[in-house]
## 1
Amino acid sequence: MATVEQAVPISAQTRSERFVRFLTRSPIHIGLIAIALIWLVPTVGLGITSFRKPNDIASSGWWHGLTQWDWTLHNYGSVIHATGMGHAWVNSLIITIPATLLPLTLGALAAYGFAWVPFPFRDTIFLAIIALMVVPIQTSLVPLLKLFREWHLNTPHFGIGAFAFLGIWLAHTAFGLPLAIFLLRNFFITLPKDLIEAARMDGASNLAIFRRIVVPLSVPALASFAIFQFLWVWNDLLMALVFLAGQPDKAPMTVRIPYLLSTYGQEYNLLSAASFLLMIVPLIVFFSLQRYFVQGLLAGSVKT
Amino acid sequence: MSTQPLPTPVAAPPPSEGGGVTTRSIFGRFQGMLFVLPAIVALGLFLVYPAYYTIRLAFYEGSFNFGFEHYLGLKNFKELLTNDPDFLDTSKFHGFNIVQELLYKSDGGALVNNIHWVIFYIGFALVIGLGLAVLAVRVRYERAVKTAIFIPMAISATAVGIIWLFVYSPNPDTGVLNATINAFDNGFHPIAWLGRPNLVNYCLIFAYVWASVGFVMVVLSAAIKGIPAEIMEAARVDGAGEWNIFRRIMFPMLSLPLSVVTIWLFVNVIKVFDIIYVMTGGGPGTSSRVIAFTMYEETFLNGRPGYGAAVAVIMLVIIAPIMVLNVRRFRSERVVA
């Protein structure tokens, strides 16, 4: 170790070099901290606003809330009950969970096929799927809406009202699948070949190999995609706007908040509390599963 | 939910015996297909076929039930590109000053606005993201800075829109931007940032940059850490300054991640919709519309599905080179590996 340390040139620095280094570095600190503050302040401001009394919000900036500590949860109570935002929050979950599990399941199965089971035209089909990754949602909105209308999804079938969500689940599935297949296939293919060959020798079916070997070994990749897709769907506005239009009782938070804005544009207390409710889920996911989250984003860099 | 949308493939075949081999190999040829089939069907029905439908619809007028009514040929496209000042207003371009007009004027319609978005959104996001990635590795509180920058990435564009509506609020008592300027300059008249046609696009762009820089920073920062330390040390020992190390070593080695990030930003900016819908609704007037906004507006608010489909096709055409690029890159990577 000692020899290695000697090889590091920093120890050979003279005093003047260190001084220059300090001088050149203070702008770095100032710049970094300033940018970090600019990036934090807007979110913090919204958070503080959501805990202040409506009169205070109207009469003074949120930064006064840092010194006047008469915070309240009242805004959350009224936004959840009076404006139906609690209901919309539940809708967001109802939309997001199946729209995450469905492409995860279908994508993992397909990725296994592309990685480990040869079949005719496999590579061509896979390349086509890569190309589909960046297709804009806009090219599908109208035909899908037409299709879902023909299915009469907004009337209950067999007494189940959840059919209203089937359209948006399927649309999100289709748009999540190319990324799921791409990501998972690239991970599956790195699994040790010997392991899979050995299982085949022992007579394991492909489905058994998939379930007993591939899935348990691929939890990090599956988690990365699941988190990416979960946030994608949770944060989506456009698809919900189009596919759940005219059904306010089915609308997720991302749709209800602009609606709130158009009706209560000046009621900052309601808007800020509603936005904070919308943000809280991604923030919890972010802080608890940061590693997978970042991995998923890095891997998802090929999608938008 | 069901985890087996597939008809279960063959039960485990008998391990020994020669007769099973032929049935297995015939079946085996299509077994992979069975795994892929549900995904292919979903993609075909809900992504590929709709895209075909939209392309076809772009040649019709369409109606409220989105059928193929009134064949128009290329008329939708012609109308969009020559006779719709909200989409592309070429009358604003004079002579050879196109570049100048593009950069300094923002009343050229949705397409020109989107070009502004491409230039300034990608430019700012890359410069800020790269700067942060390069600088953050040099300080001890790297993690804290990165977390602060990255948080907006997790937030929905809807929430980003509300957050920045508060920041840009014209009321200096509540809007933090006007209040900050006011603190330095007392006689200052608060600005309605989103109410001015010549400012609104840049304000929206900055809000979206704010939300996207975290991604650029994380990707580039991971790439910088992947540069072998020996190369940097060798350069330092040879007396290279920090600037030269950045320019001659880091920057060239970052070309691949930079291109990935630029493509991501580009696709993002062509599809940008949510934040504009929430913050300005395309206004004031039509001055902050972009391509995706026009598509939504024409199709669902103005009841012109054929016209909206033509806008969607233009989006697809703009993004098509990225599709080719992605496929090519994947192929070349595989050759290397």
## 2
Amino acid sequence: MEIHSIPEAFQTKLRLAILSSLLTGKKSFRELKEITSSTDGNLGAQIKKLDELGYVEIEKAFVNNKPQTTCDITAFGREQFKEYVEMLEKLLKPKN
Amino acid sequence: MDKTIENALDDISLIKTVILKTQKDFAKVASFFIWIGIINGIAWIIEQLAYYIRNTVGYGNVYVQLLGQGYHWVRLIGYIVVFAIFYRKLKSSQNDISEGMIKIWGIVLIGSYFLSFLYLRLLPNGNSDKINILWRSEELIDVLPVVVALFMTGILTKKRIITICTAIYSIVYFVLFLSMKEMPYGNLGGKGTLIPISSVSVRCLMIFGMIILGLYLKIGAKNNGDTFNT
């Protein structure tokens, strides 16, 4: 991954926050909302985008007759995240 | 500073903050404490019902024995069920601090039950002063691990107020325990009995203390958010 070709998934703070929080495990929509302190509409739109890009998987189920959405990071998403962090580290390393 | 470097630093700081926040998310463990409080509340109602029947119908009534046993079984089974549910939930969330806390509380609550069971089985029969002191000391098996677990909860969550409240409670408890003062208990529908004030304080701790701790962690978990704009 290069600085001039950063994937769309890492170009907004909220998407980056969503992916970072999913690194520690599956989260429900409500949990993601609490962690990122974002609005329903904004969060929903960013999750949808990340799903389309193949970074997250969305699971919809009924729990106690209420719809519950859970998100998980995909293997591709995790790999891309790792590459992105490595790129950031490289960028911050002092050049000799 | 170069704009690219500035953005890179921003992103790294955001990633760190979010990961730290997911580690400090005590919402699930907070619900565990609330459930422990509810279980103890239900057990208390059962105990009071047993006293009520004893006071109105008589000691020999079969329901008095059943409800008396029920008090212990509700707590033990409740602890095991709640521990199993929350341990499973937290294992999948990979939240190391909360998972550690659940393990400590599981060992403390369930383990102390088995310890006191063993203790009571090993107690010699009789009615001497020594045996009475040993009977009274059984309560310490229940309360001391809870106090230790509360201190550990305060340390793990880095909430000083939990540690301070636990310290105050332990001092109050030991003063009450050593003073051996008693108060009327279970006097619904009759005379009831006298039990040590320290035992009443343990019941209050396990019902109200746990619910307050749970609510405090739940509210605290919600109030530490930064917003991330798109």
## 3
Amino acid sequence: MLGPVLLVALLAVPAVGAALVALLPARHDRAGGAVATGFAAVALLVSVLLWWGRDPGSAHADTAALTAGQPPAAAWHRVDVAWAPDLHLRFTLSLDGLSYPLVLLTTVLTLLCCLHAWRRPPGDRSAVLAALLLVIEVGVLGVFLAGDLIVFFLFFEVVLLPMYAVIAGWGGPDRRRAARLFALYSLFGSVLLLVGVLVVVNAAGSADLATLTGGGALPRSVQLAAFTLFAVAFAVKAPLWPLHSWLPAAHTQAPTVGSVLLAGVMLKTGTYGLIRVGLGVTPEGLRAAAPYLGVLAVAAIIVGSLVCLAQTELKSLIAYSSVGHMGFVILGIATATPTGLNAAVLGNIAHGVVTGLLFFLAGAIKERTRTGELTSLGGLREPAPRLAGLLGFAAVASLGLPGLAGFWGEALAVVAAAQLGGPLWLTLAVLAAVGGALAAAYFLRMLRKVSHGDPGPAVSDMDGRAARVEWTTWAPLAALTLTLGLAPALVTEPARDVVAELTAEEAR
Amino acid sequence: MIAAVALPVVPAAAGLLGLLVPACRRRVAAALAVGATAAALALASWLVAADRQVGWSTSWLDVGGVDITAGVWVTPTAALLAVVVAAVALAVQVYSPGYLRGDDRYGPYAAQVSLFTGAMLLVVVASDLFLLLVGWEVMGLCSYVLIAHDRRLAEAPRAAVKAFLVTRIGDVGFLLGVVLLGVGAGSFRIADVLAHTYDPATLTAAGLLLLAGVAGKSAQFPLHTWLPDAMAGPTPISALIHAATMVAAGVYVLARLFPLLAGSATTMAALAVVAAATLLLGAFAATAQDDIKRVLAWSTVSQLGYMTGALAVAAPAAAMFHLVTHAAFKALLFLAAGAVIHAVGGNLMPGGLRRAMPVTFAVSAVGLGALAGVPPLSGFFSKEGVLVAAAAAPGWTGWLVWSAMLLGVPVTAWYATRLLLLTFFGPARTDPPGPETTPPTATVGRTANDPPWSMRGPMLALAAPAAVLGLAVFAAPWRSLLGLAPPHLDAAVALPTLLTVLGAAGAWWGWRRSRAGDPAVALGRLRPWLAVGFGVDAVQSAVVVRPVTALARATRNADAVLVGGTVAGVGRAVSRLGVGLLAAHRASLPRATTFALAGVLLLTLALAVGGVR
């Protein structure tokens, strides 16, 4: 019974680490970064260990799911304890193949971010920054592990304040506005999520996700209402056009590690929620809203790409590209087919890896040239051929080159939409594919402005060499990009049972 | 089976590995690249010798509903094309160290060429459309990085972006076509897709969409515009792109999926129109170029029109045969052009190089003769096969393709002769042949010499097939590789041969009349228009590029104003509401007390009412 222990440890380790680091005196700043990195490494180790001992079936012996007479989701590990019995609150954690890749992504990216914050601190108080990163990790992991709607909501909220602090404390010149926008948007979404959760819990009499999955306990009208609330809440987080305007601001102003975690894992809580809660708990709501969701997703793809094409700032361009990429993920979810869900799962992970790498690289470039304006950059391949090469690699991965990670999510989303058939979904498939060509256009424009041409003053004076720690943070992400591109089944195979279950409910 | 799997994997792996080799280890990079390509050539040759179908696949990604597989499917034609690809790539790899002497980025260059080769071989052997797509687009990427290789050329990055982007636009169609076929058949395996019976509408739609992708890769009108600009890349890369990879991929994929195309008359008609337009547009544009490489580039566009034209008249075997001979003589021509450029230091036709560079002259003459279709050089036989197929084809499409092809024959002979005369005959020119071009930056022909053996070897090695490969049509085993019909050379041969002679004589006469001047003077006022390829670029810029850019700006502004503005407006409204409430709270003490007491009263009442229940 090591599984439940590991599950709790996965949340406890970064939480304890954050507390320890926060308690360190300010003069031990570097040591704090080291401690945080150590705890993040332990968390990664724990998440890796969770792979072993996954035994679908045995974990459910004592769950409410079996008593409800429903086949439970194929959870690998599960913790279910009474929390506040008077309020019927239970603390339920559950790990399955849908959440596991995201859990791994979170622990990997947090470790890389802590390492980065430790070795290349963006200003002073880097230990506090590292502690905040660990708190964000706790929140995000909690969302992915939550086996209960209330727990899900609580962890969804945990992420907000530390991310606000990261942006407001270590961000660029316009950080206050960006942080405020982020917080207000997120709070708006949270309120709706809370109402949605309460509606569902009141109507179903249970908050257990395994029980709720399939929507059997909820009448159609409740599902429609609850899904509307969920959809808006998750659309803010994902973000889905037109609720995205916090994202470019936050990304552009956030420090490198903040951008990486924001794009890499935090956005995924939105799309994960849409799958786990939106499709899982209120499948009829999602089915009813699918055309609208699909249209908005494709609008996000096209608008995001077009805006990118006219962007003049490096980080803001990458941020807007996220809007397009998450559009593909949401298009996949909107189809609610196995292909679409697999597209979403692959797109989520690929976006986390590739955009994380892009933000690390953009941070490295901005750190050296002190500018992110595309007009002042240019000729990067002369002083820094390897950095330029890696930026090119990340960009082509992001534009969806087949054979690299970004391709699968986008291509399968198109396949899923085409599978549904009919004029609407075929049009959406075509437009999404056109969005892929637009993505190529804006990334190639970016590379032409950044890598090629004659070096301007900002670039020719830069130090083209990368520190060892930078290679240490970039190399795993680059390797993952190639690995996932060649072997996408690494992500979809674990999720297979869950995807089948979620979409089987849909077919009923 | 292992040989077929290793065929793309070996060069691709060598390419990825080569990217990690430090820049100073030139020899390591060269050894890795040449070794891997030679290994690929050996594997491909072995597959041809084995002469049987190899099919193997395994599940790659199971997404429920459709199974995406990874595997190889080697037919004799595929094996033959693999040999061609590997042979041209090997020639390029051997040639490149000499051509790029003193270039400190030779290492990544060689690695990228290996990756390019691997990607093309993947297209050749892939048994699944998704796997094919991987090779297909990785090629686009490789062409992009290689065209942008030369940092001294200001236009190189733009040309590189254009190459990737134009082909990528075609690939939107290709991806959608693949998706339609795969979703319809429930499998993306080529064999399953070919075996499935589609309804006519789907078949037509998928065929047209695939055609868009092929038009991008194989430089068919109207997506051919990237190919002439791609000349900004190093010359060996041009040889690779024009002969063995990229442009060959499109024609090959059409031949491989031919039964699907042939199932729809609309698709075939569209193919015929595109082929005829491409063929003539390329041939006429080639007549007015001053840059050696641009003449060759437009000639590739035109020759690709011959190949797609052959497909349009339902002769995939003839198309593949022309593809193979074209690969040999076009790679040869580019390597020879590279030798000239290397020697004189400029891209314009210098004149008078015949004595200074006898080997280059000889191989160029062979290559240009094959291009023009002079018997008994390779191009003569393959072009003859294509023409015979077109002449026999029924309907208006057959007539269209055949007449376009016939018209193309003298034009091809004309520009090939012009290229030969202006480069190798007459006095060495210091002034440019054209009125509006920049003067050559270089030393004059007198100091020019034939290239060193590392570059001369590949040229000579390619000259042999460029000369005699056409005769293979008389060998039954060769024909069975391609599924080619036996040749029937009858009186019909006389017409294209006569047209070739006429075209060549026309160029020669123009050259003599103007005392070793440019025969293109005869084009008169058409010349500038032909030189820019009929202005298709300008049309594309006006119809696609500028509107999209404007739309992008408008969207960015609208996004900032509408979405951002709405959010900011909500924020302001809430702030104002807050200020108003604050003002209401800042009341005098008696009023505040009144409000507070009223609140207490209300609460008490509420509790009393609620408590009773």
## 4
Amino acid sequence: MNMTTFKTLVLREYWENKSFQRAPLIIAGVIIFSLIIGLFTAQTFIVQFGETINFNGDFSSLSQADVSELGIAMKGFQYGAFLAPLSIGLLFVLFFYVLGSLYNERRDRSILFWKSMPVSDTQTVLSKVFSAFFVAPVITASVAVVSQFVGLILVTLMVWFNGGSAWDLVWANSSLFSVIFNDFALIIVITLWMAPVLGWLWLVSAYAKRAAFLIAVFVPLGVMLVEGMIFHSAHFAQLIGEHLAQIEPLVESAFENGHPFGALAQGEMWIGLTICALCVAGAIYIRRFRDDSY
Amino acid sequence: MSSIITAEGLKKSYGNYDALRGVDFTVERGRIVGLIGPNGAGKTTALKAILGLTTFDGHLDVFGLDPRNDRHRLMQKVCFIADVAVLPKWMKVSQALDFVSGVHPRFDRLKAESFLKKTKIKRDSKVGHLSKGMVTQLHLALVLSINVELLVLDEPTLGLDILYRKEFYHELLSEFFDENRSIIVTTHQVEEVENLLTDLMFIKDGQIILNSSMDDVSQRFIEVMVSSDKAEAAKQYNPIAEREMFGRKVFLFDGIGQEIAESLGDTHRPSISDLFVAKMKEVVA
């Protein structure tokens, strides 16, 4: 595969999809704004999954136990306040990106321009797959790193104003490098975990003549409904629900082990990736041989 | 002369509808072929087959490749403009240049830049903000700067005003065409391409009903303006069309020879549109 061509194709995805950077920047902006309001009005220091530690401005009386708790709380702050909302934002961005990626070009007929270039359908579709699994997650993770840093600086300022030692309280407990590493690793692993969903969206995107969104959402719902009516069971819904529910333990394992790669040892991950690969192959086939686009 | 396209028994059906009913044709290097036919005649289907945008039955060879399997390789030698509206609206002009330079090894960016300098198109404008004429100029600047051997144009001037249309064909001839390159063009505006074509192909109901060079066409078809007293005599030569003009009859003959024609009245070359109308009616009758 020609690297210049592939680089250009990926760049083209980046040009078209401003939401890759816009969405995380907006989310990070909102988080930082509310953090500023929270820090300087309510004096609420750290929010750890809803549990608030209030210091009442007295930083000198912290016990050793408080400090170790602070370490956990800092992780909660960095992951919970920044990474979690950014990851959810990314999944929304990817949903609409993937669903539109082979559909919009047929609606506005720009596919005829793309197809007038010496680029194979395989290369084109793979550039979109690469953008979804790598480009968009890396942009989101970079925004996460920068915004976490801004968050730490804000907390530092707040501690200084209150006469505490920012180094001991904030930076020594921030596990900065581990957090930066996990921003990237976790976001990419979560995206890979969502691969079967993305694969389905690519298939719909390549197949749908109209109403891609409705097909993408209502076909799975229809399958659940039919299964429920005929077999009085809900295996399909359960399958999807359990797969999505695995994201939380996946994140927790990253806390415990310092990395999220335990997920790669799970069969479920590889089944998901295989389903995705089959769907992508189907999407390539459809894009190559259908001709209702003219 | 070498053939760049050879089609034998080219067929394409959409369900029960036969878009192409086993057509044979060749296109030679260095020609400008006009593919003319009414809506639904199979023009676009034929072009799609040539460009590898659809499946088909029969044999089709374009630059030694089968377009069905090798579209992306074929596009090194062939480029096409399908319609004025196909450049993506979100793209900036500079991005369009970057994109084509990135994916097309035969693209001459400097040439494209110099085309664009002659226009009012700004480098940082988005395609969606350009006028229709400007989008066509941009597309043309991109495509004419690619050193391809065959250019396929499907209704290239659709929706353009008359100023741009003239310019479009002028640039096409002066900047792109030479003896090593070929152009296939389909259009409803037959008058516009009349003086441009070297070959003429009429297609109707999935079949090719005329395929010859313009030289042969002007040899074969003669339009004669006959005074009404000679009309009966003229009809013996089986005119393929007749119409009335200023009280005289105008007959269109297929292959009767210059001498006989001149004995009947004033002769001249028929316009492609008159010839087209005559050929289309002929098949029906």
